[in-house]
Amino acid sequence: MTPPAELTYALHEHTLPNGLRVIVNPEHHAPVVAVNLWYGVGSRDEEPGSTGLAHLFEHVMFQGSENVASGEHFDRLQAAGATGNATTWFDRTNYFEAVPTGALELALWLEADRMGHLLPALTQANLDTQREVVKEEKRQRYDNAPYGDTIERLLGLAFPADHPYGHTVIGSMDDLDAATLADTHAFFTRWYSPRTPS
Fold first, then answer.
1. Per-residue pLDDT for 27 more than 90?
2. What is the CATH number of the domain that holds 27?
3. Summary mean pLDDT of the chain
4. What one-character DSSP code corresponds to residue 71?
5. Does 196 reside within a domain?
């Protein structure tokens, strides 16, 4: 019997003065870097009547910033040979890219830029555009798909309605429609920045 291969992962962790925790796992055998940024916000952090905001921000964060025009975030990554996407769940939202090593600085700059400079670009027009994208996703994956309501029904059976996990990550159409520009600015300000260590 062949003994299992011994795997080692050299992890280096550092917390920046602004509270951002950085974990690096160097692997020099491939000319690619994985960048993965996790925000500690998900649907559990939404207030009643404001469901879907965390997932809405998954989309809004790609819309542009003060320094990156609408639609340019993905364009810049793709032009450098990178791929990227994001996911949202009950407890977190994460953004990830796989970039050639020469594009690492670009990927880190794009992440830092939208963390620090998103709000000037979060206009009513951009909010309305991404709200419609999320509503269409809800129609396709939940409302008009066979068994699309399964998750919502299971959550209703497993958790009381006022429990943090008592609603779907994508939220309700009524709550998405009710989200104002002020609501989204406040949600971003509260959740999408590093925390200063106490």
1. no
2. 3.30.830.10
3. 93
4. T
5. no
